[in-house]
Design a protein that fits this description.
By secondary structure, this protein is of the alpha+beta class. Among the domains are: 35 residues, no CATH class; 81 residues, no CATH class. 17% of the residues lie in helices and 14% in strands. The protein contains two helices and four strands. A hairpin with an 8-residue loop joins β2 and β3. The protein is elongated and about 95 Å long. The protein starts with a helix and ends in a 25-residue tail after the last strand. The model has no long low-confidence stretch (mean pLDDT 69).
């Protein structure tokens, strides 16, 4: 039953309950239409889909954009898809110093010294063997343009493998990342 079918339904109910029950019919229609008018409202900061429309909080178009949603950005009304030309990937440089990385980590890429050239941050290792304990040989920071080592940060002994994750972030609010 759609919203357009509801009012004719109520009129047919009134017609059916003529006479002394007319007042009861009016009360029934008033209460029923009031319940229909009540719909769940989205509470925009509780992480739930309150109005059951499939959208949670700031992903729901019923919520105003206040820049404090899950991603910290407003949902755009219109998405722009940029066009891309054909490209191919070629190695810019290859490390030849023999320092292996005995972990399953992706190198980080970040401009940590704010010089416009991104650095590549990796973990190196020594003693890579299935029979011996692995040791780290430090966190290496490489120039992203030339591949030259800019800095080696020695790390303590780690049993079996290097640290499993490293991160870069600006924690002291200066222009460079740490």
């Amino acid at each position: 039953m759609t919203k357009d079918d509801i009012y004719p339904f109520f009129l047919s109910v009134l017609w059916a309950i003529r006479g002394a029950d007319f007042l009861a019919g009016l009360v029934f229609i008033f209460c029923s239409s009031s319940l229909l008018a009540l719909q769940a409202q989205e509470i925009c900061n509780n992480g739930l889909d309150d109005d059951l429309d499939g959208f949670v909080d700031f992903f729901d178009p019923d919520c105003a954009c206040e820049n404090d949603n899950f991603f910290g950005i407003c949902t755009p009304e219109c998405l722009y898809t940029a066009g891309f030309s054909d490209f191919s990937i070629e190695p810019q440089w290859i490390s030849s110093n023999g320092n292996v990385i005995p972990t399953y980590n992706t190198p980080l890429v970040a401009d940590i010294d704010n010089d416009g050239i991104p650095e590549v941050i990796t973990m190196g290792g020594t003693g890579y063997s299935t029979l011996t304990v692995r040791r780290t040989s430090g966190i290496r920071i490489l120039n992203g343009q030339s591949g030259q080592e800019e800095l080696l940060i020695p790390t303590p002994f780690m049993a079996w493998s290097a640290p499993m994750a490293i991160v870069v972030g600006n924690i002291d609010a200066d222009p460079e990342g740490e």
